[in-house]
Amino acid sequence: MTEDDWEYLPLRLPPGVSRLTAATQLAIQAEFNGWELSRVRLYADGTRKVLLRRKIRRAGVPRVAI
Description:
Elements: E1 6-13, H1 19-33, E2 36-42, E3 48-55
Antiparallel strand pairs: 1-3, 2-3
């Protein structure tokens, strides 16, 4: 699988967001939009930069049952 097979969504969570709240927000994105966690960076000021990814859904030829 190459990098071209994924689409990415960068998010920035402000310092006041608790770890539990951040985990809940990310779980909602995963459950309803198909995103998965790719990377998290926590900065000294409490800011989190999150990178979510999901496989690109390409339209293919529909399969016909015979």
